[in-house]
Amino acid sequence: MIKRYGISGGARLLFSLIYTKLFFRQARLIRLPFDIRNKRFIEIGEGFTSGYGCRIEAFPLNDENKCCIIIGKNVQINDYVHIGAVGSITIGDNVLMASKIYISDHNHGSYNDLISDHPMSLPMDRKATCKPVVIGDNVWLGESVCVLPGVTIGEGCVIGALSVVTKSIPPYSIAVGSPAKVVKEYDFEINKWIKK
Q1: What is the pTM of this model?
Q2: 63 C-beta neighbours (distance < 10 Å), count
Q3: Which residues contact 115 (CB under 8 A, 6 or more apart)?
Q4: 189 class by beta-carbon count within 10 Å (0-12 exposed, 13-18 middle, 19+ buried)
Q5: CA 157 to chain centre
Q6: 3-class state of residue 30 by DSSP
Q7: Which DSSP state fits 5?
Q8: Pairing of strands 102-104, 133-135
Q9: What is the pLDDT averaged over residues 16-20?
Q10: Contacting residues for 112 by C-beta, under 8 A, at least 6 apart
Q11: C-alpha span between 66 and 69 (Å, rounded)
């Protein structure tokens, strides 16, 4: 470990491992600093691994006893991932996320109501709105991906770096861009990725 991370890096990793085993026994490794807000509304599955500087926060709008964020088994998120929910974010098993990813199920305002969402109103005074986010099993999210409210990313998808996912992506697809668009789909009959 010292050869790979150096003395200070090894000590930091050891401290993170002790923290993980004390506070998140099912997790594999949570690297510190790690900011989790309202842990009682967050369910983290077995084998979870985080990078440095991650933030996971849940502030339920309605049902005070409901989990807002459910993370499946063997999920790995890398450095500076931010996941925030007021309603529902579900992340499947074996999901891999690169660094600097943002996932949210909410906005400050719906921007349909002319009075409460007026551009001169204070953003914090606008009524929060939310739509569930679902990320399926075996999904890979590239560097700096942004996943917005109401999106479902199907099983086996790959979302390219810097993509902004504003609409749902069907299973077994590769999507890139801002807004993200499907560029390939997997064809199980010929076992090959097909360009769209």
Answers
A1: 0.92
A2: 10
A3: none
A4: exposed
A5: 14
A6: strand
A7: H
A8: unpaired
A9: 92
A10: none
A11: 9
